[in-house]
Every structure is written in structure tokens, then in C-alpha cells.
Design brief:
The chain has about 375 residues and is an alpha/beta fold. The chain has 2 domains: about 200 residues, Rossmann fold, CATH 3.40.50; about 180 residues, Rossmann fold (3-Layer(aba) Sandwich), CATH 3.40.50. About 40% of the residues lie in helices and about 15% in strands. The chain is built from 13 helices and 13 strands. Helix 3 links the parallel strand 4 and strand 5. The structure holds ligand GMT. Ligand GMT binds next to helix 1.
Length: about 375
């Protein structure tokens, strides 16, 4: 198949999932075209069946807001025609599903019936999409897609609760390429980060308020009072600076390393003992899954789709949002006993294997085939 993929090219989970999906589809013999405003961060290699088409939005001073949807839908029309794209998979409803529908209508005028598959990732539904400013357009775009998927059962339930959805939503969970995370790094430089007796705790995110960064610092503050430990904070975003200030205030700045954005999260995870994800809401928690794939147990909140990934008492523990004391207790339970830590590490990897890319990507292929067949009947 010739598949177009529209996504956000940044470090966010939806862009990562879209990129990994495209790369896997190309390995399975499909031709994949990424269409977005810059090359996706995990799309390092282009090849004869992986292509990238940049959407440019010319700056024009008359416009207070530059019309990205307009530029994207025009680019989609051109790219679909030139490369004979058969199915378009858009990740994140806003504005991708909306722009895709406009492209579909324009293409129909030219006799091309392009099926649109929309994948809902979470923030497009829970945090942004349900805002009254966007809700009618998001509802319309979802209902006009030829197939809709969500990355967890919880997100599907939220979507059906928050929007007036008239079509089936299929749950296709996020996935992980376990092969990528199974080699033990010869350059896993643990000693550069911590002393042998120090436990290493890690958090990776885009440091938005929804990630509850202060809870991470406070849980770590409690942990390091009981056992030697270091905290690795990976990523960047609005809550990073306040977090650095909080570490200084608590006097733990020498025990917390802020990495900023990193392309080497697998290398950081390979020396981690525990992952913290205390988010306010999280449709899936791809970062937790990536940690588990590296055999790192997860202490998380019991919110959104996280319980579908992190199994309480098996791959880690779940606590109520904001319950720093419970998270501390659970973290210490895992970290203070080497046998317990070993069991949780093994379990984390086993649970992650349920989301192996090779098991999940065929679901998307089946959806593409179904929508293509439906188009040919029209
Ligand atoms: O929250 C983020 O880190 C970014 C956000 C995004 O839009 O890329 O992530 C969402 O999609 C990911 C991939 O499906 C999910 O793993 C995240 O849980 C989800 N974030 C939220 O729901 C807050």
C-alpha cells in the first residue's frame, strides 16, 4: 500500500508513535509518506520507501494567525496526487483530521476517493479538543473519518462521553519495538551518573503541567531521605525551570540531573531502576511503556489509560493522582530490596512485550485494507 502519515513531528508521544508506525510499515513493504511541518524527530533515515514532505506556511503579515490547516490540506492534495497515496493516516485530531477531510473533499472533485484513518492520542480529546472553541470541528472531523482508532480503551470511553460520535472507534494500543530495547549497551555509562550504591530514578516528558512535575520532585525528595538515589529528568517544557528552582529550595540540586531533550532515552533508561509518571491525565503513557521495555518498573498515577499499561503490583504501582506519600511508599518498597527490584524489572519487561510492535501494526494494516475495500465499493 502507499500510505500517507500526518503527525506532529516533535518529541510528543503521538509523533513518536506515528513515526515508529511509518518505519515499521515501510519494513513490511509499504511505501510511506510523512507529511508535516518538519522532519519527525525519530525519523532519522529516509529511504526509497520512506519519504518526507514538508508543509510550508508562508509568513504573511496580514494574518494574525498563519493558516497551517490550509497549507496542510493543499499539501495533502498535491502529495496524494503526485505519489498516488492510497490511504491517509492522521495522528491527532486537531487540526490533522480536519485538514485531511478538506483534502478528501477537494480530491473527490477530481474523482479521487481517499480514505482517512484518524488516530486519537489523548490531549486532542481530553485537554484541547473538548474545549468549546474546538469541539464542533473535532466532532465533525472524527465523524467524517473513514476509520477512527484510539490508543486506549479509556480514551475511547472519554471520546464517546465528551463528543457526539456516530462511528465506531477501534482501540489500537501504542506499541514498542522490543528489539530496539533488548541489547545491553556497552556504553551504558551508569558510573557517570551515579555511585554504585545509588538508585537511579528517571522521568521523561515534555514538562507540561499535566505531568505534575512537582510530584516527581517531592517523591524523589522523600526517597533520597531513606536511600542513596539520583533523579534523571529528561525533556523540556514550561515546568522545567520551576522544577529546577524547587530542587534548589529543597537542597537536592546536586542529586537531580536535568538533561533537556534527548535522542538517547534508551541509553538513559538502560541504567534506570525506577520510572516516575504521576500525570494528572494520560491517555496511554508511552513513556512508561518505553521504560518497561527497558525493564524499568513504573510508579504512576492511576489515571486515564495508564492502568492498561502499568499493572499494579506487577510492573510497578498505581496511586491516586497527587498521592505523593503512596508513591513514595511504593517506590521504596521496590527499591529497598534487591530481590523485589529484580522481580519488578523482569515483570516490567514481560508486560511491555504485550505491546510489541509486531503484534500491533497488523491491526493498522487491517484497518487500511478495510477502508480501501470500502472505497472501491463506492
Ligand atoms: O502528553 C504528551 O506527552 C504528549 C501527547 C501527544 O499528544 O503526543 O501524548 C499523548 O499521546 C501519547 C501517544 O499516544 C500518549 O502516550 C500520551 O499518554 C498522551 N498524553 C496525554 O494524554 C496527556
Amino acid at each position: 500500500m502507499i500510505i500517507g502519515i500526518v503527525c506532529y513531528p516533535t518529541f510528543g508521544g503521538s509523533g513518536v508513535v506515528a513515526t515508529e508506525l511509518g518505519l515499521e510499515l515501510s519494513k513490511r513493504g509499504h511505501e510511506v509518506h510523512f507529511i508535516t511541518y518538519s522532519q519527525p524527530v525519530r525519523l532519522e533515515l529516509l529511504s526509497n520507501n520512506v519519504h518526507y514532505h514538508e508543509v510550508n506556511v508562508p509568513e504573511y503579515p496580514l494574518f494574525h494567525y498563519q493558516p497551517y490547516e490550509l497549507a496542510l490540506s493543499s499539501k495533502l492534495v498535491d502529495t496524494v496526487k503526485i505519489h498516488k497515496i492510497e490511504v491517509l493516516h492522521v495522528h491527532y485530531a486537531i487540526p490533522h483530521a480536519y485538514a485531511a477531510y478538506m483534502a478528501k473533499i477537494m480530491l473527490l472533485e477530481e474523482g479521487i476517493n481517499l480514505p482517512i484513518v484518524t488516530t486519537l492520542h489523548g490531549t486532542d480529546i481530553t485537554l484541547v479538543g473538548s474545549h468549546p472553541f474546538y469541539k464542533p470541528a473535532v466532532t465533525f472531523s472524527i465523524n467524517k473519518s473513514d476509520a477512527v482508532t484510539s490508543v486506549s480503551q479509556n480514551l475511547k470511553d472519554d471520546t464517546l462521553r465528551l463528543f457526539n460520535i456516530k462511528r465506531e472507534i477501534e482501540v489500537v494500543p501504542n506499541f514498542i519495538d522490543l528489539g530496539k530495547y533488548s541489547h545491553s549497551f556497552t556504553d551504558c555509562q551508569r558510573e557517570m551518573m551515579a555511585c554504585p550504591d545509588e538508585k537511579i530514578i528517571t522521568h521523561i516528558s515534555n514538562f507540561r503541567p499535566v505531568k505534575r512535575i512537582n510530584d516527581i520532585i517531592n517523591v524523589f525528595y522523600n526517597i533520597q531521605k531513606e536511600i542513596p538515589a539520583k533523579l534523571m529528568m529528561v525533556g523540556d517544557g514550561p515546568e522545567k525551570e520551576p522544577a529546577e528552582r524547587l530542587c534548589e529550595k529543597l537542597g537536592i540540586e546536586d542529586k537531580v540531573i536535568f538533561f533537556g531533550k534527548s535522542h538517547e532515552i534508551d541509553k538513559i533508561l538502560c541504567f534506570s531502576d525506577l520510572f516516575l509518571l504521576p500525570s494528572e491525565s494520560e491517555s496511554f503513557g508511552l513513556a512508561a511503556l518505553e521504560a518497561m521495555a527497558c525493564a524499568v518498573p513504573v510508579i504512576s498515577s492511576d489515571t486515564g489509560g495508564i492502568p492498561e499499561v502499568n499493572k499494579h503490583g506487577v510492573s510497578g504501582f498505581l496511586s491516586n493522582v497527587g498521592d505523593v506519600e503512596d508513591m513514595t511508599k511504593n517506590a521504596l518498597y521496590i527499591l529497598q530490596n534487591e530481590d523485589v527490584l529484580k522481580t519488578f524489572k523482569t515483570n516490567a519487561r514481560i508486560e511491555a512485550s504485550k505491546f510489541d510492535i509486531h503484534n500491533i501494526v497488523p491491526f493498522y494494516e487491517a484497518i487500511y485494507k478495510t477502508v480501501l475495500n470500502k472505497m472501491s465499493l463506492v
